[in-house]
Amino acid sequence: MGRLAGVALPPVLLVGALVAVWWAATAVFAVQPFVLPSPGQVAAVFTERGGYLYRSSRTTVVEAAVGYAIAAVLGLVIGVVLASWPPLVRAVLPILVGLDAIPKLALAPVLLVWLGLGWTPKVVIVSATCLLPVVLATIGGLTSTPVEYIELARSLSASWWHKLIKVRLPFAVPRIFVGLKVAAPLAVIGAVVSEFFGATAGLGYAIRAAGADMPLVYAALLLLAAMSLTLFYLVTAAERVAAPWAKEVSA
Predict the structure, then answer these.
(1) Can you state the angle between helices 169-194 and 119-142, rounded to 10 degrees?
(2) Could you say which DSSP state residue 38 is in?
(3) Which of 21, 57, 111, 130 could share a disulfide with 183, CB 3.0–4.6 Å?
(4) pTM to 2 decimals?
(5) What is the extent of the structural domain holding 113?
(6) pLDDT tens-digit series, residues 216-247
(7) In this structure, are residues 124 and 115 in contact, taking their beta carbons and an 8 Å threshold?
(8) Region of residue 68 (left: phi > 0; alpha: psi -120 to 50; beta: else)
């Protein structure tokens, strides 16, 4: 319990200090709400429009979670394939990097034309946003296995599958989870971007439809930050449960 308090206390104190500075700035300088609402005005949005924010958050969470899950699975598969056949890396990786470089805000209208309204284009944008970090982390992890372990597996006539599962994967897990943790906040970003076009729900739509209602915008931004943190720490917890040896291997 004391260890948990020691980990949680510094960020809690820092957030409290930032909120205090924020509140003092709006009070001392008499900042207008359409420029910078006070913390009290933002908090009032949660009580007055809590139902609307809940429904919007639920939509964004589902889009981000589904797109992230697809990107995680697809990124692992692509990473394993590319790490197993190095010539493919030189052919496929530039294409993945080029596709990742396309601004997702510019991609959204194109996907709406191709895939129509609904969840599909939004999930595709989230997956496209998250894919590259997982692919790169998987390739880096699987190709970082010490040579002596690979030679030992070959001397034992281990199959490709056994070398992957028993030798390469334990060393790759720490790097793979780094990629998954990098992709976690990107999933929320991708979901918000996808909601700027053709959406009727979600926090991205709420921000776009808010206009000059800055307290509502700031409330939505706080929820998005909370979503990113939650997804990040869920992936961190999954790493500790699914791969308890990862810390020892990475050390």
Answers:
(1) 160
(2) -
(3) 130
(4) 0.90
(5) 37-250
(6) 999 999 999 999 999 999 999 999 888 776 66
(7) yes
(8) alpha
